[in-house]
Amino acid sequence: MIKDRKYLQPDLKLLDMSIIKELGINSSRTARNLPWHKNKGFELTYAYSGEFIWEIRNETEIQWLRLCGGDLGLTPPEVTHRGYDSLIGPGELLYIVFDLESDGAETCTGMTSEELTEFNRLWKKIDKGTVSIDSRTRSYCVDLAVLLKDSGRSKTILFIQHEMRLLILQILIGSLSCFMNPQKQDESSPIKRACLFMEEHINKNLKIDQIADSSGLGKTRFYELFLKEKGLPPGDYFNQLRCQRACALLRETEKSITEIAFDCSYSSSQYFSSCIRKYTGCSPTEYREKHRLNYGSF
């Protein structure tokens, strides 16, 4: 079970890998703050479970990227970004910030100067975006998570750090391949159909039977596939969508709390308030006051 607001970060000095600037896993059962920031290196993220939306800021506009369980995300160096409205949703996320132009990069990667230059050039060709991860790279990410969770209590820390370095290189190489050769997304897949159905009926109080019917699968099979692909049950996924919609209405409209609760199909304003507090960490009124003040500002 994911513990609330858990952060796993190794000692980078012990890791002794100069290209890695940040590395860790964020796990949470509630939404958490992720304000505007940028990195000197590439930021590679992998969603073990849950759904995450990034706001990417450039000179003229803000773009959005959605990262679901099983997806890789990439933000290039010096690109300002944050979680949607400074929040990222519940789930578990691996992040690696790396700079292939760091001193000692050849030593810690085992690449020649020519190989490293080409590796860096290929990464620079990739624009920000998300792709589905392949099974091999996913297994590397899972293995790295196990090591990160064990590194704080293991007596064989030196062996773990060595294995981490190997896994990180495999993840970087495998992730580059995923971005350069993205898997085609099947828009007609059962899970995709169910997600679109939920988005189109965000103002309805959907039941799991209705969501399963939209996928064309039986209830049990649908639940198993949805949990495997998205990393959370369909009911929790739909509740996240409703909370995201409700938060947008709190920020951008003058509607009352009761009206917004009704628009998003909550049975009562009290239940609505408890859901928003669980998702954002504050009440609807507190959320509105806080984010109205900062809305549109960077």
The CATH superfamily title of the largest domain: Jelly Rolls
Low-confidence stretches: 1-5, 293-298
What's the helical proportion of residues? 40-55%
Q: Tally of extended strands?
A: 10
Question: Per CATH, which architecture of the largest domain?
Answer: Sandwich
At the first level of CATH, what is the class of the largest domain? Mainly Beta
Biggest β-sheet, characterized?
8 strands, antiparallel
Count of helical regions: 12
Based on Cα principal axes, name the global outline: globular
- Average pLDDT reading: 83
Distance between the termini: 35 Å
The CATH topology assignment of the largest domain is Jelly Rolls
Number of folding domains?
2
Helix and strand content put the structural class at alpha+beta
- The protein's oligomeric status is single chain
The percentage of residues in β strands lies in 15-25%
Give the radius of gyration. 20 Å
